[in-house]
Amino acid sequence: MGSLFSPKKILQSQYTMILVMIRNIIFLVLGIMLGIRLTDFIGYLKLWRNNDLRASEKAALLKYPVASEEHLATWLRREVRILCLVLTMPSSHATKAALVNRTWGARCNKLIFMSSQTDSNLNILQINKSESRKNLYAKVRTGMAYVHKHYLNEYDWFLKADDDTYIVMENLRLFLYPYDPESSVYFGCRFKAYFSQGYMSGGGGYVLSRDALRRLNLFALNSTTICKLNGESEDVQIGHCLQDVGVIAGDTRDFQGHHRFLPVNPFTVFPTILSNSWLEGYFFHKPNKSDCCAASAISFHYVKDFEFELFEFFLYYMRVFGLHRTPRALPSRLGFRQMNERLQHWSQQVTDNKN
Amino acid sequence: MPRLFSTRRLFLGGKNAIYLLILGTMFYAVMLHLPRNFKSREVVESYGPPPARIFCIISTYAYRHGHAAIHIHRTWVRHCDHYLFVSDDIDNHLEPAVFMNMPDKWHRMRAYLEYVYKYHFHQGDWFLYCNDDNFVVVDNLRHMLKTYSPKELIYFGCKLRTTNGLVFMLEGSGIVFSAAALKRFALTALTNESICSSETKGNDFTKELGRCLTNVNVIAGDSRDEFQRHRFLPFDADLHLGSSMNESLENHKYFLDHSYYPVNDMNLPVSLHSICFHVPYTLNIYDLYYFAYKTRIFGVPLNLGFENERMGLENKTA
């Protein structure tokens, strides 16, 4: 009679507690399932990342039927055909020229020495000019004309070097592979000059594309107004000629800004390039003084006689156990539009070296 | 019917914002711990037993800290498992162990080895002693020592012998001691005057070292490779690679007279897995380090097995 705890209400409260307990159990089970699923998802993310790496490597290997880097280098030797023109003189035939012939010159597709006297041990193009610095330009012109006349269509790139240059031909082929030899471009160690494009250091070696060599011979060397003989250095004059006939100076640095072509011996740029040296002021692209050189080095200059064998041993034969890097595939060849964009970018470069 | 599955809690607001914030933080923390660094290391792990730990002892002097030892500190010495510079004065960068008032080389050598045995013996299986004008490819040394045990009584270097048959190692081209050899030298040889003399020996201290180690049954090992090419080179790399030895030079004549192995045509065959070079101009260490560890040629493999080794050899001789 008017009691607060009626039997009906007590039964309803018990029923509610049972339902609340059921709800809690359901939520707990769902939470556990969600947690387990989340753990699987995290594991899936890790596996997916690992699979992604393997997939990219697999794609890189499937891009070419021969996966080995050694096989690619052998194939590259026939794909990027480089004719090497090496300036020498009779007093260097038995020393520097013979060393070039035995070391890096043997890896050229064709090797031609330019000298004033012939030699039975070397493939010499005899140029009847006295050996002096002022005749270097005329010598190089004669060599370029000869190569243009006889070998223009048999080779893709034409390298000019001195007999105290050391060229890593495999890295040069790897560097040149993406570029079209019918585009008007040349590569080397780019120096500043009084003309805007600059020139490539002669001693560090420069490499002309087929179209560059064609333009040089058809438009420049046959002209009486362009490329007149003057007192400048051979490489400055060649650089000026090539700019006048529309050949673009390419950028040979790697993606970290390290220089692949060196105009000096590497023994003079480590650990730092000395301040106020002649070298610091010559570079078109300002080098990082304490980290100047690329891992994919191509050229060294002022190489002494014994250093040819030293470079040969350390670069090709010396083995450091445990040193392992991912095998590389060849980069893609640039299409017509991409090549034009690259040429445009190179032609618009200005020097950042204010020394 | 009470509302057991309330829909108000699914909307953002009030306590729900706090719960969602906590959940988001947890999710972010989980994503943060996912491994994102798949960069390949410069030197990868090798299969099989762990490689030997190499403790490097670099002997230098105070007047050479700034122009010789500091460049070693920046280049090849970081490939050692542990290293210690020993000198006659302190240096902030090198932190050498200092041994003063010891003019004799043999006394210094004894002190160095005793110090290393007392305080650093637990840090290495092999102990490399060299000067501050050496360039050492420590990874090639580690590979050479794979076939030896640090429990063997053996030491390596550029092997020489005297006319009466005493075998010793050339000074200046690196000497490698096994842990057992160093222990026996420190415990048995140094404490016994009849086995190992403590008199001054001058420039002949490596001879005395060879005599001491022979007296305690430590073997002078053959450090050449399987083609009898030398790994510990007595002179500069450019001399061994591009030139010849000259009998009219005193140090060349000394080596030619005392060399343990025969020398043909004034030339030593150089191993493709060379270990120790002498560097006359210390800044050239950066160049050798650049050539050995940094430069990379397309198509030239960096880690050859045995079969490719022969191919490389044939290409070289062709």
Secondary structure blueprint with pairings:
The complex is a heterodimer of chains A (355) and B (318).
Chain A: H1 7-62, H2 69-79, E1 82-87, H3 93-102, E2 110-115, E3 124-126, H4 136-151, E4 157-162, E5 166-167, H5 169-176, E6 185-188, E7 190-191, E8 199-200, E9 206-209, H6 210-220, H7 234-244, E10 248-249, E11 299-300, H8 305-317, H9 336-347
Parallel strand pairs in A: 1-2, 1-4, 2-3, 6-10
Antiparallel strand pairs in A: 4-9, 5-11, 6-9, 7-8
Chain B: H1 15-32, E1 54-59, H2 65-74, E2 82-87, E3 97-98, H3 105-120, E4 126-131, E5 134-136, H4 138-144, E6 154-157, E7 159-161, E8 167-169, E9 175-178, H5 179-189, H6 205-215, E10 219-220, E11 232-236, H7 237-242, H8 250-258, E12 276-278, H9 284-294, H10 306-317
Helix pairs in contact in B: 3-5
EC number (chain B): 2.4.1.122
InterPro entries (chain B): C1GALT1/C1GALT1_chp1, Fringe-like_glycosylTrfase
Domain Fringe-like glycosyltransferase (chain B): 54-159
The greatest interface between two protein chains, and residues involved on each side, is:
A-B, 51 and 51 residues
Mean pLDDT of chain A: 86
Summarize the main sheet of chain A. Answer: 7 strands, mixed
Can you name the CATH architecture of chain B?
Alpha-Beta Complex
Order of strands side by side in the largest beta sheet of chain A? 3-2-1-4-9-6-10
Per DSSP E runs of 2 or more residues, the count of β-strands of chain A stands at 11
Cα Rg of chain B? 27 Å
Spans of at least 5 consecutive residues with low confidence of chain A: none
Q: What fold name goes in the CATH topology slot of chain B?
A: Spore Coat Polysaccharide Biosynthesis Protein SpsA, Chain A
User: In which range does the helix fraction of chain A lie?
Assistant: 40-55%
In total, how many beta strands of chain B? 12
What is the element string of chain B, with H for helices and E for strands? Answer: HEHEEHEEHEEEEHHEEHHEHH
Sketch the topology of chain A as an H/E string, one letter per element: HHEHEEHEEHEEEEHHEEHH
Percent of residues in β-strands of chain B:
5-15%
Average pLDDT of chain B, rounded to a whole number, is 84
Named CATH architecture of chain A: Alpha-Beta Complex
- Low-pLDDT stretches of chain B are 38-43, 304-318
Question: Considering DSSP H and I runs of 4 or more, what fraction of the residues of chain B is helical?
Answer: 25-40%
When the domains of chain B are counted, the total is 1
